[in-house]
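User: structure tokens for this one?
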Amino acid sequence: MARVTKKDAAAAPTAAEKKVVKKTPAAKPRKKKVVPNFVIQSSADQSTTYDAVIEKVKAAFDGEVTSVDIYVKAEEGKAYYVINGDVTGAVDLF
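Assistant:
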């Protein structure tokens, strides 16, 4: 049986002195953001895009916008909007 002397005990690193190696998680490949192509069609073969409706609503309102709700009624050819919770209106879809 080996004897442990004070010299040997002093030479052994304590838990605080030991290097802690942290494993970093492997880098996950980034997924590409999917941007949908949003098209509104009527039964009369007319169509418009989401971006076109947004631009029409922005053009119809002059002021600061904090929130926008848009309700599309393709059968009427209208997009109804509520801006900032109290300003209402409608724009033509086609």
